[in-house]
Amino acid sequence: MKHHLLRRTLFGITVILLSTKTFSQKAFIVTNDNEKIIVDDNFYDIQIVDEEIDYKTPNSDDKKTIKFKNINTAMLGEYDMKRMKIADEKKEQLCFTVAEANGKKIVGYNKIITTANTGANFQNGGATVIKHIYYILDANGGVIEKIEDMISSGDKYIKAMKVEEDKIRKHFSDCKEVMDRLSGGVLKNADYTKYSKFERKMLDRMAANMTNIDVFFATPTYSNCDEPKQENSSVQTDVKAPVSIPDQKYSFGKISTIPMGSNGTKMTDYSFKGTIVIKDNLISFITKGVETKYKIISYQDGIIKCDDNGKIHAVTITSETGKKGSFAYDTKVTFLVDKKMGGSTSYYWCNKE
User: Is the CB of residue 164 less than 8 Å from the CB of residue 213?
Assistant: First the structure.
């Protein structure tokens, strides 16, 4: 659906780390002036090095930017951010909450470090790296452990990071999601074939030097270990009553797609005609006589979730008038593919029948 950009530099080479995003329809930012900004959860990039978030608001194509220093709180998919002052920190920081379990939390922030010029005659310029500063807090906000991590290399560094990693394992050993991520390889197992040959070499080099804890904090997504996720299950915890959605039919004349990895900025339009039918708790997409059906498993807050052999896609239908080429439409149907199938987004420009 969407890939956030978490940029960091290793040995003076700037690379882009991969991360994930879930479909939430609850993305928002609250500024230090207490202004709440509702964010289109298909369009936002968290940029660590630049300390800012690029985003769009619902029903707007205008990209906006807000600096970390102007944010009080933010809930963006798998990212939970809140400004706070921890322990002996000199000032408040915009922190990521990485995990919660049994009254304990992992919270912290990423500090940008710019090194001095290096090389003969200083021709290589400086390098920017990110230092991870995180804390394990008790239920009262007291500090149990402090964890610091900045990518380096060598046996001494690896041993030091193992000590930091063990702090997390000690307090979150019964949280499978955290343990899986810590053992993980968000970067090591990532598919980054879309990058150039040079960039892939740099990513391989980074992966070879990164310890488990480096990988863990490179993408500081939120895990609530007290409320295990039940993604891609035909039994949905948000369904409190039988699905009830009226029969509907739409005809479309254009389809726009945002492929995986385009960060919400690259859209391709196609001239396809067809229909979308909602009936008997099924949603059908019919194009050129080919019909694809999905079982509707929940309908809440305007979001239709449908099952595709264990993968969960999401559909929203909104009234919107405009033109795509010569095709005039009055409805936009958004189809968001399960992130485990690539997470792409398609817009069907329709007229309601």
Answer: yes
How many other CB atoms are there within 10 angstroms of residue 268's CB atom? 11
Q: Which residue has the tokens 């030097």?
A: 209
Q: Which of 79-88, 257-266, 343-352 has the lowest mean pLDDT?
A: 257-266
User: How crowded is the C-beta side of 67, counted as CA atoms within 13 Å?
Assistant: 2
- Residue burial 293-311, b: 16+ Cβ < 10 Å; e: rest: ebebbbbeeebbbbbeeee
Handedness of CA 53, 54, 60, 62 (dihedral sign): positive
Which pLDDT does position 16 carry in this prediction? 31
CA distances from 71 to 51, 157, 290, 304, 326 (A): 11, 34, 47, 31, 41
- C-alpha triplet 27, 30, 32: angle, nearest 5°: 160
Q: What SS3 string covers the chain? A: CCCCCEEEEECCEEEEECCCCCCCCCCEEEECCCCEEECCCCCEEEECCCCEEEECCCCCCCCEEEEHHHEEEEEECCEEEEEECCCCCCCCEEEEEEEEECCEEEEEEEEEEECCCCCHHHCCCCCEEEEEEEEEECCCCCEEEEEEEECCCCHHHHHHHHHHHHHHHHHHCCCHHHHHHHCCCCCCCCCCCCCCHHHHHHHHHHHHHCCHHHHHHHCCCCEECCCCCCCCCCCCCCCCCCCCCCCEEEEEEEEEEECCCCCCCCCEEECCCEEEEEECCEEEEEECCEEEEEEEEEEECCEEEEEECCEEEEEEEEEEEEEECCEEEEEEEEEECCHHHCCCEEEEEEEEC
Q: What is the pLDDT of residues 314-344, one digit of tens each?
A: 898 988 899 988 999 999 998 888 766 666 7
pTM over 0.70: no
What does the pLDDT read at residue 210? 57
Give Cβ neighbours of residue 326 (< 8 Å, ≥ 6 apart).
Answer: none
Span 13-23, pLDDT tens digits: 223 333 333 33
Question: Each residue of 137-163: b (16+ CB within 10 Å) or e?
Answer: beeeeeeebebebebeeeeebeebbee
